[in-house]
Amino acid sequence: MSTNERLSLASNYISVYGSTTNEDTHGSHKLSSSSSPSTVFHISPPTIRESIKIILSSSKINILLIFIPLGYLAHIFNWSDNWVFILNFLAIIPLAKLLDFATEDVSLRVGETIGGFLNATFGNAVELIVSVVALMEGEIRVVQASILGSIISNLLLILGMCFVAGGYYHSEQTFNQTAAQTTSSLMTLACIGLIIPAAFNFAVKSNFPIIDDGIPINGLLDLSRGTAIVLLIIYVLYLYFQLKTHSNLYQGEADDDDEPKLSLGVSLFLLASVTVIVSFSADYLVGSIEGIVQSSGLSKTFVGLILLPIVGNAAEFVTAINAAMRNKMDLAVNVSAGSSMQIALFVTPFLVLLGWVVGQEMTLYFKSFETVVLFISILITNYLIQDGKSNWLEGVMLLATYVIISLAFLFYPDNLS
C-alpha cells in the first residue's frame, strides 16, 4: 500500500483512532474503541530517503550546502584566507538553518517543557560554537565582538526587519506586552552586567595610574567571573519562569501549525551531525580572520561584530521574518529579542567561565564605545516594544540605528579603548 493510500485511509478512519465512541461520517452508528485492530491505521515514519528529501527541501537556503565541502577543500589545500573565510562563511549559513530545523522538530516531539529547553539551548548554538572556537584560539577580541554583534543584530536588524515586513502586510501588529517587557528588562540587567566592569576598569585606571597592570586585570577577572555566575543563575530562573510558573505568557509564541516531519532518531542524528560539521567550519572560519583582516584592512571588531553575526543569526532571520509576515508577532519578537537575551544572559557568562577553565582571560569588560553602543541598542528597543504594538516605521528606526552603528564600527580601529 502506498503512502498516499495509507494517508487517505487514515483520514477516513480518524474518528476511530484515539476515541472511545464516535459517530461515523453519516451519523448512522457509533464505533467503539474495542473495534477490531484492523480498523486502526498507523502512518509509518518517513524512510531514510524520504527524510533526506524533507531535510534538503526544508529551506531554500539549503542550496548553500554546496559550500561545505568547498570550505573544507579551501582549508586542506591552503587556499588564501579570503577564500577560506568566504566559503566557510557561506557554508555556516545553511547549517544554522538546519540546526534550527532539527531543534524545532525534536521540540515538537518531546513536549513543551523539554522542547522549550532545547530551543533555549540550541537557539544560539552557532554563535556559541564560533565563540568557543575563537576563545580556544585566544581570539578574545573576536569573541567579544561576535557576542556584541549577535545581540545588536538580533535587536536592531532582525527585529527591525520583522517590524518592516509585518507592517507591510498588516497595518499594525500586536504582541504579548508582558513577555516582551520581561525580555527587555532581562536585557537591561545583562547590559548592567557589562557596564559595571567597564566602569570598574575606568575607575581603577583613573585613580591608580601607577598600579601594576596585573592587579586591576585580576580584579576585573574576579568581578567578571562573579558577575557571570549571577547572570547564569538569572538565566536559569528565567527558564523556570518561562517554562513553569508563567508559561501561559509564552503559549502564543509557539507555531501550533507545525507538526514533526522526521522521526525522533533522524532529528537527533541531524542535530548531532550538523553541530559537528559547524564546529569544523567555524574552526576554519576563525583561523582565517587574521589573514582577511590584514588583506582587507577591516578591523577584527568589524569582522566579529558585523560579519560573523550574519552567519549565526541566519536561522533566526528567516524564522522571525516568516513569523512576522504571517502576523505571528509573539513568535517573531521571541526569536529576535529573546535570542539577544539568551546570548547576553547565557552565552556571554558561559564563555567567561569557560575561559576561566581553559586559562583564557575572558572578561565582561567591553571597550567603552562598544558598551555605549549596546546601551543605545537596548534603550531604543525598550522604547519601541513597551506598548506591545509595532508598525513598519518603528522597524525603519531600528534598521537606521543598525546602519549607523555598522558605519561607526567600519571606521573604528581595534587599538582604541
TrEMBL record:
One GO molecular-function entry: calcium:proton antiporter activity
Q: Which GO terms describe its biological process?
A: intracellular calcium ion homeostasis
What keywords tag this UniProt record? Answer: Antiport, Calcium, Calcium transport, Ion transport, Membrane, Transmembrane, Transmembrane helix, Transport, Vacuole
Q: How does it sit in the membrane?
A: Multi-pass membrane protein
The source's superkingdom equals Eukaryota
A GO CC term attached to the entry:
endomembrane system
Residues covered by the Sodium/calcium exchanger membrane region domain: 83-243, 267-410
Please name the Pfam families in this protein's record. Answer: Na_Ca_ex (PF01699)
Q: So where does this one cross the membrane?
A: 61-77, 83-102, 114-136, 142-165, 186-203, 223-241, 262-282, 302-324, 331-358, 364-385, 392-412
Identify the main location. membrane
- Enumerate the subcellular locations listed in this protein's record, separating them with semicolons: Endomembrane system; Vacuole membrane
Q: In which family does this protein belong, per the annotation? A: Belongs to the Ca(2+):cation antiporter (CaCA) (TC 2.A.19) family.
- Function per UniProt: Has a role in promoting intracellular calcium ion sequestration via the exchange of calcium ions for hydrogen ions across the vacuolar membrane. Involved also in manganese ion homeostasis via its uptake into the vacuole.
Q: What is this protein called?
A: Vacuolar calcium ion transporter
The organism is Rhizophagus clarus
